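Email to the structure team, subject: Mitotic-spindle organizing protein 1 model.

Hi all, the expression group asked for a predicted structure before they design truncation constructs. Nothing fancy, just the tokens so they can compare against earlier work. One-line instruction: predict Mitotic-spindle organizing protein 1, return tokens.
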Amino acid sequence: MDPEAARTARDSLELAFHMSNILETGLDRHTLSILIALCEIGLNPESLAAMVKELRRESRPPPPPETVAPLP
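Reply from the structure team: attached below.
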């Protein structure tokens, strides 16, 4: 990749990362760059977003069991 193309790619990723932070997506630069690359090769962005949401949901720890007050 020539230096100018690399600089443009880097600047584009920085802009996307800045927008991601404003929108509070919680994506780091590396993850965002992977998602952008997947979109560039033709994967559906909405499907990728749904997958990210699902993976986050699955990786959340289960809620603690509810504590029940003993009967008097």
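The helical segments are 3-22, 29-40, 45-59. Residues 3-22 form the longest helix (20 residues). Ping us if the truncation boundaries need rechecking.
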